[in-house]
Write a structure and sequence with these properties.
With 175 residues, the chain is an alpha/beta fold. It has a domain of 120 residues: 3-Layer(aba) Sandwich (Rossmann fold), CATH 3.40.50.1010. Strands 3-2-1-4-5 form a five-stranded parallel beta sheet. β4, α7 and β5 form a beta-alpha-beta unit. α5 crosses α6. The longest helix has 13 residues.
């Protein structure tokens, strides 16, 4: 389903980078990704290998089995060439996600900053990039989670050293 950012059924396919995926594993809220209307979240094999904590691996495998997120590999020669180009300046998962977003027309979910963020903006545009806070705000706006659940998620992420950029939660919680 969906080889472009928005398929015929109005569903945007999103490549999940490890930075966002691990945040949802920490929160034990992968279900939020599945419940978010209009999106299909995909974990590329390169990103799956970046999940190293045993409990997070178990949670991710359960998410695959329950159909909460989908798995995908990289086999397209054009995508592999772009992946190799990106791999020179960024990590494995980041390179795979950005290459998939470019070639397949997908969106990208990543909390990475600096070089990666600049290159992603240049290659696919800011409008095709989501972050953990942006996904959580969308979840509140679509009724998937409450503001109170958002507040709890923010606190849990901060306990796990996630730095929330000012204004990231759109004023829904104090920052």
């Amino acid at each position: 389903m969906g080889t472009s950012a928005v398929s015929g059924r109005g569903v945007a396919t999103v490549a999940l980078d490890a930075s966002v995926l691990i945040n949802f594993l920490i929160l034990n809220r992968v279900q939020v990704l599945a419940d978010l209307p209009g999106f299909r979240f995909v974990v590329l094999d390169a990103v799956e290998h970046e999940v190293r904590r045993p409990q997070q691996q178990i949670t991710l495998e359960a998410a695959f089995e329950q159909g909460l997120v989908d798995r995908a590999g990289t086999a397209n020669p054009q995508e592999l060439a772009i992946f190799a180009e990106h791999r020179r300046v960024m990590g494995l998962g980041e390179a795979a996600c950005l290459a998939a977003a470019e070639v397949r027309g997908w969106m990208l979910a990543s909390d990475e900053r600096r070089l990666f963020r600049g290159l992603a903006r240049e290659r696919i545009g800011d409008h095709r990039i989501l972050t953990t806070p942006a996904i959580l705000v969308l979840a509140v706006k679509t009724g998937v989670i409450s503001v109170e659940e958002l507040r709890g998620a923010k606190e849990e992420l901060e306990r796990n050293r996630f730095r929330v950029p000012p204004g990231a939660f759109g004023g829904l919680v104090s920052e």
